[in-house]
What we know:
Layout (H helix, E strand, L loop, with lengths): L1 H24 L6 E8 L3 E12 L5 H14 L7 E6 L2 E7 H10 L5 H7 L4 E2 L14 H24 L12
Parallel strand pairs: 2-3
Antiparallel strand pairs: 1-2, 3-4, 4-5
Amino acid sequence: MACVVGVASVNYAGLQRMVDDTIAKDARNKGIEVFAHYKYFVNPNVLVYDLRKVSEENSPMDVTRVLLQFSEQLKERKFDTVELSHRGANKFVLKGEFFQTVGQEHGLQNPIYTIRTLPENVYKPDGSKAYGEWSGGLLGVLGHQMEDFADLHRTWYIDDLAGKSAKEVGHVQ
Length: 173
């Protein structure tokens, strides 16, 4: 029993309290709930960022802002990977180095740049890239990047919230 309490305490003090504080510090984050913990609660090399609740008033930008603000809180921490989950189901993976860089640059880097390039740094749970990188004219590239950003959020949690399976919306073959 003491071991379970110890594991819970480490996860709470090291991650959950920080994500709760991050959400509470910005009124725009109201309505978003995240459960942050180490993989299997004992693997400190993998951060599980489990989105649990998104209110109807929250937008994908709000969800991304919480992720970026949390990455800033953890900017000195190194993870191998960060799993983006929804209600316990792993949907995507970020490389730990990317997550740390985003945290270190938050507040310095243009947030629009970070938002539009986020999808090209996202991987499927099997390790393959979830989205490609775009080249060409600025307006065309921006349009494709924002389409990928929207799809990232649909696949991560919006389709689940809408009660649709991935097969129904064409994300899974």
